[in-house]
């Protein structure tokens, strides 16, 4: 059974710019208000006595605000960085040839108190003969009391590489979490989070701070012509993602001005192509705007293929009438919606071998994962889909049915 990524996960063109312009340009104006301005009270000790009258020097003006106005008592959102620790295999350290860092994201919590301890997340895995991380499993974390998107941990590890010819069976890595409040975060961290596939719950605060110096809150007007870089001509390693975050103005005639890169993952070819594309955009004439923002991203040139099925892998039993799943009952596998989104975001393919039993009346039960590579996420996705399946009714059911599910992505066409 082959599963292709659906349109809501990864459109047919594997290199997809931000097609929904309004959803991604994030131009925001600064908002001023009393909620974030500290009350400045004069102390009697600072009063100046002059001819019997007491005058109080005026308080200094408050610093300019470059962040969103938050309700009283609500903490600002936090930029989240998941930092990989030392990799241990059979108790000894192992150095990767390339260790992919998880995407930046954000979180937020309500109340005045920050968490006293930062959570950590552990993965176990093996290294195959080709130097790939396989059999990636996530250890159940301790719930920290607020949401942190950790769905890129396993895909990032699957995109990493180790020296070939040195397989390992019992390896582990722990990721630690670092928080930085959005108002205090370096701009580079904000650009990285804003350009990530999942910016996180504090996304609006991030975009608002990045657009605080502009007046492009509602966008530069209706687009008349939008341009995109020639992504297929830009090299990008499989399993990785590069991005360019740009700022620009629009004059009263609808032409873009002052287009420049303000944040980047350092792919020079993408940066140059992004500036060139954005300079050619045109918008409806009207009020001029400044400080508008937009970002492009580039996925890996080709998908990372799933590891090869082992020779002793259980065989598919679709030929048995009592095990033949009715295709109409597994639409998410056939239309690609079951494809694990975090792996599609890095263009990583996988497979799952699912075992199940059937009843004479067509019900499917005892669904279980027999194998999944390169990570358990593929097995979970396939198991959830097949749990909803049915087989054709018959005189008898069957124990020990097996279905092999392959998750595939479209290949990129070479540049002409």
From TrEMBL:
Pfam family, one: TonB_C
Bilayer topology term: Single-pass membrane protein
Keyword Membrane: yes
Domain TonB C-terminal: 216-318, 324-416
Key words of the record: Membrane, Transmembrane, Transmembrane helix
UniProt GO BP: transmembrane transport
KW Acetylation (keyword) present: no
Localization, UniProt: Membrane
Signal peptide: none
Residues annotated as transmembrane: none
UniProt GO cellular component terms: membrane
Name of this protein: TonB family protein
Organism: Sphingomonas populi
Source lineage: Bacteria, Pseudomonadati, Pseudomonadota, Alphaproteobacteria, Sphingomonadales
């Amino acid at each position: 059974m082959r599963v292709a990524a659906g349109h809501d996960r990864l459109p047919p063109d594997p290199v997809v710019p931000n097609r929904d312009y309004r959803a991604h340009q994030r131009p925001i104006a600064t908002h001023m208000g009393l909620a974030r301005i500290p009350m400045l009270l004069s102390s009697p000790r600072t009063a100046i006595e002059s001819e019997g009258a007491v005058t109080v020097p005026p308080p200094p003006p408050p610093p300019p605000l470059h962040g969103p106005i938050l309700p009283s008592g609500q903490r600002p959102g936090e930029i989240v960085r998941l930092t990989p620790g030392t990799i241990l295999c059979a108790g000894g350290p192992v150095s990767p040839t390339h260790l992919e860092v998880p995407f930046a994201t954000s979180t937020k919590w309500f109340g005045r108190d920050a968490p006293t301890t930062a959570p950590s997340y552990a993965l176990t895995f093996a290294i195959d003969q080709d130097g790939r991380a396989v059999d990636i499993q996530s250890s159940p974390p301790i719930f920290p009391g607020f949401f942190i998107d950790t769905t890129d941990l396993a895909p990032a590890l699957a995109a990493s590489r180790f020296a070939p010819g040195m397989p390992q069976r019992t390896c582990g890595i722990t990721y630690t979490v670092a928080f930085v409040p959005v108002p205090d975060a370096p701009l580079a961290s904000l650009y990285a989070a804003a350009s990530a596939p999942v910016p996180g719950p504090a996304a609006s605060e991030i975009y608002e701070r990045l657009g605080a110096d502009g007046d492009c809150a509602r966008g530069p007007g209706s687009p008349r012509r939008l341009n995109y870089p020639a992504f297929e001509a830009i090299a990008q390693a499989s399993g990785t993602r590069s991005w360019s975050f740009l700022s620009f103005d629009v004059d009263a005639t609808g032409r873009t001005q002052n287009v420049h890169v303000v944040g980047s993952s350092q792919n020079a070819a993408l940066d140059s192509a992004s500036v060139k594309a954005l300079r050619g955009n045109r918008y409806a004439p009207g009020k001029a705007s400044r400080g508008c923002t937009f970002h492009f991203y580039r996925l890996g040139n080709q998908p990372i293929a799933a590891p090869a099925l082992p020779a002793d892998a259980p065989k598919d039993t679709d030929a048995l009438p009592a095990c033949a799943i009715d295709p109409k009952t597994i639409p998410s596998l056939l239309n690609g919606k079951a494809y694990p989104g975090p792996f599609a975001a890095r263009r990583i393919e996988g497979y799952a071998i699912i075992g199940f039993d059937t009843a004479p009346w067509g019900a499917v039960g005892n669904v279980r994962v027999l194998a999944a590579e390169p990570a358990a996420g593929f097995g979970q996705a396939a198991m959830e889909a097949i749990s909803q399946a049915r087989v054709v009714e018959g005189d008898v059911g069957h124990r020990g049915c097996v279905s092999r599910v392959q998750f595939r992505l479209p290949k990129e066409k070479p540049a002409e």
